[in-house]
Structures are given as structure tokens and as C-alpha cells.
Amino acid sequence: MGAKDSRIWNAAQDESRLFVTEDMDFSDLREFIPGTHSGILFIRLHTPSWRRLVKRMTEIFRTEDVSGWTGCFVVATEAKIRVVRPRKN
Fold first, then answer.
1. Domains in the chain: how many in total?
2. pTM for the model
3. Is the pLDDT of residue 3 over 90?
């Protein structure tokens, strides 16, 4: 059994880290509005497995400029990445 969602979430926010997850609890843009957190990378694989997750994360961190994802809500599938950026005032 892992740590509670709130504990992991709070630790990532306290350290201003990009939060990487497959957990559907973090998939609601209405709750996790871009610009209100340090950034979420939500990985959504068609057929999830530990090996596929590691492979996809490795691809993402090798090929994408994740430094620009601060405050963003990012959804990654096997085929594409969608970045929702904070609204500009």
C-alpha cells in the first residue's frame, strides 16, 4: 500500500516538483487548475504496465522540454502529449 494521495501531492508541492502520476484522482482540470500548482504530468497508457510506464517516462524526459511545464497540466499517452498552460491575465 502506498502513501495517501494528499501526502504525496503536498510533498511535491512543498518542493515545487512536477508531479508525475497515472492516478485518476489527479486528472480533473477543474480541481487541478493550471497555475495553481507546480505542474502535473498525467500519464494515460492504453495498456498500462510498469515497463510501459518507465519507457514512456524515459521518452518524455529525453525528448521534451519539461522545464516549461511549471504550473501546467500535461496529459501524455503513447502517441501524443497535450499541455494545458496557465491562463494569462
1. 1
2. 0.90
3. no
